[in-house]
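DATA SHEET
Item: assembly model
Revision: 1
Owner: S.N.
Input lines:
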Amino acid sequence: MSAVKNYDAIIIGGGHNGLTAAAYLARAGKKVLVLERRYVLGGAAVTEEVFPGFKFSICSYVVSLLKPNIIRELMLPKFGLELLPLESTFTPLENDYLLRTTDEDQTYREISRHSPRDAETYMRFGPLMGQIGMAVRPILETIAPNAIRPSLADLGAMKKLLNHFKTLSDEQFEYLTKLMTMSSADFLDEWFEFEPLKATMSASGIIGTFMGPRSPGSAYVMLHHYMGDIDGAFRAWGFQRGGTGAVSMAIACSAKHFGADILTEAPVEKVIVKNGRAMGVVLENGDEYQADKVISGLDPKLSFLKMVDESDLPSDFVTDIKNFRIRGSSGKVNLALDGLPNFISLPGDGPHLRGAISISPSYDYLERAYDDAKYGNFSQEPYMDIIFPSVIDPGMAPPNKHVMSCFVQYAPYDIKGGWNDQKREDFGDAVVNAIARFAPNIKDIILHRQVLSPADLEATFGLTEGNIFHGELTLQQLFVLRPAAKWADYRTPIKNYYQCGSGTHPGGGITGSPGEMSAKKILRNW
Amino acid sequence: MSYGNQFKAHTQLKLSPFFERTSRLNESQEWRRWSGYLAATNYELTHENEYFAIRTKAALLDITPLYKYIIEGPDAQRFLDRMVTRNIGICRVGQVMYTPWCDEDGKQIDDGTIQRLSDQKFRITSAEPNLEWIEYNAAGMDLSIWDDSYTTAALAIQGPNSRTILNAVTSDSLNNLNFFWMMETRFGDIPISISRTGYTGDLGYEIWMDPKDALSVWDLLMDMGKPFGITPTGLQALDMARIEAGLILLDVDYISSRHAIVESRKSSPYELGLGWAVKMKKKDFIGKKALEAELSRGSKWEFVGIEIQWAELENHYRNVGLAPGLPGTAWRTSTPLYKGNKQVGYATSGCWSPILKRYIALAHVKSDYAQSGSTLDFELKVEHYRKVTPAIVVKTPFFDPERKRSCPQ
């Protein structure tokens, strides 16, 4: 019954970070096996044909933060990485709109239509955030040292960071401190006056987080979203041809190219731990695989509370993991359309449909959406980040049909009465109604609708509580504290058991960074 | 911004109120962006005739894309005097002053002209939007600020015949209008103001008007100017003229301290050859402390003219069997300047001056190497190979005709 096979390393979970770790380990000559529970690879970065002819990046839907060195080192363009630019951010309003594009003159002109002062400020704000992003990047690119009981190597890493911080300008320091401590609304109020602009910018401070734009700490999440670059252009968001699943497939192809084995429909039941040492894994079907190292790409809750027994772990660590905040706050609605929505404020086709559409008319709108969630309901009028993948990449839908991806916040995991089919459909209706306020024809063109509640995200993708980042990006669980103090360097209290998912430093998004740094850390001490 | 033009172009860029005329005249259909406007690069297929119009006839340029702000109120003079480096207290009604302005660190933000329209009313022009900076510094002052960028259209008429043409159109003679002064007058029944200013270093005027009168003004000038060689002129020719005049261009010769990102990109007025426009006797102005310190310690950089020496340049080309290669248009690619093996500066814009028959450029040079007459090595590429060729530091303006300032006797 149980065929025992030997590997240097086994990776639990074929999400993009697990695949990245696999590719790096295989590239270093290790014999690697990736075990994925589902029939497709990619985890939350996955493309599926949900309705015949209609393909969806059903969960994670845009790419910005994928690290350039990973793209180079894993030769991802050779294996199918094709990032198309998202050209604009469109905020429809009741009787007007705000449209920001990649063109500076056009954006200046558009913002000055609402506030000439904001238009000027905006031109300075972007480069400044780029500078702050540069200031933070060395932290993101450092394997989190053990700050509580530092080794010599940890001290070296900390000294390097300290030296980096000495090179920062006063301005960088000032704004970094503010971004680390303030709410995104307060931070943006210091810069801008036009509410829809501020609200839309603040929205990147709440994505994937159970906070509103006025919650302190949301400014950091906003910065996290500013860190991305594509081809050296900071703050550029891109759409992968074929959906985000194609990013995962490119990484998987790279891993295979370097010799990794990948198995799908191979759900891991348990990590085999003997004498405080991981020895391999056993699958749900009873198959066993032995390996020198076992690396979990799952979130911290699954990695430590499900894959191993609590008795194999120190109790303070178990407490830390139990306290790790992983509240799901968002859902996803994927629509198959018979045409394109017609926005009242900007009718017809145009560049505004080739970018992100943000339903974020004001701070109050976002805060009210959050208020609903605080008290256990989904938002009646939710914040949404919408894209039309088929407008950017016609291959995503049949000719003249379209797919629409709506990231929706807030939808609390712990909803009153629990999530059920009725609740899910009610949530879907609220989303469609919220869109219809700005584009009434939406209701006439929906062919199919897929609604994913946080409970669905958990059941489908193994995202505990449906949290898209494997744990919120709040200060108390970042860097040396992600996911727990002393265990932020991808090791775990169990020898030869490692972690490489978004629940580790530097966190969520399609960055590949946790996978890469985990692999590099493991290889360093192999 | 729409000015009610009948002519429409399929563009996302702004169209000036003169676009209905300029778009039809632009035979090359070459356009550049200028402050988000579609602005003619050259009207003819080459810029040469337009360049010579500036220097020998009269060139007509659409300068509407300039940013313009009206500052009005009891504190207007006090405010501007605090904002800019020149002494606005001595600027009389009808006078115009060119001035830079700086941040608190004495680093230059922008430069432009200030027109005193009345005792309490000024118009300031700038290359980049400055509304935010103006409003920020006007806090607590008794004045109003009006973004005049879309409410006033502007033309420049530049060249030796410009006065003759204007005299033929205006109700008042311009013979007594001095350099950097302005007057209110009329073209027929159209009210306009004319300032004796420009960006060419030649005799020339700038005409300020209500956008609704733009086409009539254009037509009058083109009509009356015809016998005197009036020529619609684009930015290519203007760029050469302004280099000859030694006039700096924001984002080419320097970067606004508000957008510089890193310190090393910022320049003080002293480092841009504008020390003459910094009035230290003024009680206080933004950046004064830092500029005082710079003045006493000496500036690290100077902004100078250089002349690339002909004989050596010719030799470089002769060695590869070619006639000397000269730029046909103005360039704006930063080009290294060396002293021996050490880079001591960089030229930011340059051109072959057809009127001077000299190859000239504007350059940032470390102060130790910036004395007039000193020789530097200018980097150039001859048939794909890098060479250096001598360039001599010279005083600007390169071209400074007497007619620029004089009035008819």
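QC remark: Chain A has a mean pLDDT of 93.
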